[in-house]
């Protein structure tokens, strides 16, 4: 009754929001402010006789040392504020002023111990008004600062508070760490008040209680008893002894009690906040840094600029705070910070005036940083050092850096700047040389897992060790990430197990992963596709799946799948331990890494990953081919040709993406294309070439070149086709040699996304080819100069037969019907080659031929049958090719051929169609994912029709215009062509 009252005015909206926020704190049993939410929960809203509202706390909300009385929040009419203050015998009274839309919080002297023994409440000094002291640094940002002079004691209570809060609704917060004469008012205010804009992340440290020697012990996260008395800190700077004497509590408990860094008097909301390290010994996995910093302190070799850098969540911020505390710690012990001396208590209770965390964004104004430097020059209040911590210092502007660095020499020895950044590259060079740098490496999985175990023990969580190990392995060396994951899992309220972790993190279990990898390695195309789709459809992100597969393969390659691993892993590892398998796996790894890059750019990730999986089984072949291609390039170099002109990768086209071209080759191609385009007179055509076109490969030898161009839209293709002569001329002028050009359609990302609906799962659907070969003297024909078909293993689209400019070229005098690109390629499949087939034909690159060969029951390389599509670059003897080709043209009266296409229906079923043509008879064999085979023969000569069954759309004829076929597929919309594989074997 005789209690002094402090009133606080708070806008109602903020109050309600804040109350809700309090309510939402995650663990009501461990958070002191949540006790308030309990109060709020138990509030009775009563309408008063006037226009006031009265809130009554029910008995059930009484807590711990609470008085057991009801607490009321009562609103009063305007004008009655002072006169009608309710004189409750309760501990506090919160009145709502309707006129001012504010709550007035009256505080009574009677203690309201809303915290249980486990939690410390916030300190209120009843003998002092809520008056902030003026910190020397506070006027740095005067517009946001609150400056209220001391008031006579009578003027305390709500008048003072009102003044204070009416000023921009800003209030200095108590750090709520002292349990002396508790009252909820400040605690509530902490929660309710809006934050003062400040340069310093912890500027509130200088809150109203600077003069207060209170013991500053609170936030007992560890569940230790609360220390309530307020020892005389001034007289007893080193508290260790006193504390034990006074309280009888274990010093270690006290240390924990004091140690919690709660810079904004906010209670921890996550495990990671709650278990922030408070001493160097608690800093996991950073022993070198910790020892070095501690050594510097002990030896007194302190420099003025420190730079902490390293990946996120590795303890940089925590270390900077520990370092700051240790610098000012009064203990002579090596184990600093002691956590119990006056300075430590001040620091850990958030009231140190000499340690500041600077907001890097707000400090970027010149006058602010200058003001900061000016204030820094003032000697510290009570401690040895003034420490300024700049977290995320890469956000500092150049000017700010300059000012700080410039000031280093002028500032006295007591000023220390600690800069923290995860990204060293963004800092000015000068910062490096002026600072002592400390690198915080990623934390080892074993260290992380050990820490998680400790946390689980402290939090009383049930866990499986493997689950914690798994979390550690998924956290990428970041302790914070690991703690976050654990936090989330702990919320489920169950035992922390592997399956729970899998589910939460959204990853595939080992068994599923191994199953998929097994399928992919076994070339079982359809099952691989089905399985991959199932996984991705259910819950797995393709990127995640890719990285898991890559990790698994790495484990197998590194022999990590033998001991101490799951049974499934061991079995897989023993099945794939031959030299060839390991080679396959390592190439699979390369493909996956390429795929990962591709996935980042792609919107159709599922398809790309499926494509990559289909390539895993044949990856070795591709790689050897890449080597061959490289070899070939090198050979040409040796022959003294201009390297610029020799850019090719025969493997490139067969992959769904083109990432394997070395970067410098790509750049060369780009520059050639740019130069050629710029020679164009018409600026619109020049722009068209530059913007829509791309030179994707170039093979030059002995004055002749084959250039492959890519355009990403069919319209561009037709435009380019119309001007192919011009383009060839431009390239010829640039390269100074004769040029054949091939024009391919490679839909770009934007085009694909626009047409994503229609072309769901397609890659390199078709390419079309043109030649604009400038006629050479006939003597050149059949010589080494003809490279025309070297890279033609790609699926090509046939085109209207036109009178080609090269029709006078003896090499290419081919019948009208066969001038189609596709025909050429197809026919090549029937070449009665006299040469030994190379050990790796271009088709080997593709996994499909295995399937094709299996499905068509024919060998892939039939020496007699001449299965070879064309010569390898390694044997690059174009004349051979040309001769063979000519010979074939003469001999192949039957025009027997075969082609394969892979289609995909709406039901996501892949189907393989083998189209064989012998004379007038065309037979189509299809097999779908269910291994249903279906063959039908058409001897009617109706070659151009499409035949459709429930699962697949087959192109019955190899001479069909592919573009047309594709369009028809679209119109039908029940299946579409995924890929052509041409040719595969000889049809008899
Ligand atoms: N080395 C560590 N030992 C123990 N806990 C750590 C360590 N590193 C990080 N943590 C945990 O992660 C949380 C975040 O750490 P901290 O803020 O110090 O990391 P940081 O490296 O500064 O990260 P960021 O660069 O993102 O600011 C801490 O509260 C703590 O719980
Ligand atoms: Zn200390």
Automatic annotation (TrEMBL):
Pfam families given in the database record: DNA_pol3_delta2, DnaA_N-like_STI, DNAX_ATPase_lid
Segments for region (Disordered): 917-947
CDD domains for the chain: AAA, HLD_clamp_pol_III_gamma_tau
GO cellular component: DNA polymerase III complex; DNA replication factor C complex
Annotated coiled-coil segments of the chain: none
Broad class of enzyme this protein falls into: transferase
SMART domains found in the cross-reference section: AAA
Catalytic activity entry: DNA(n) + a 2'-deoxyribonucleoside 5'-triphosphate = DNA(n+1) + diphosphate
Residue stretches making up the AAA+ ATPase domain: 302-445
Keywords (A to Z) from UniProt: ATP-binding, Coiled coil, DNA-directed DNA polymerase, Metal-binding, Nucleotide-binding, Nucleotidyltransferase, Transferase, Zinc
E.C. number(s) listed in UniProt: 2.7.7.7
Biased composition (Low complexity): 920-940
Assigned protein family: Belongs to the DnaX/STICHEL family.
Name of the molecule in the record: DNA-directed DNA polymerase
Species name: Cannabis sativa (Hemp)
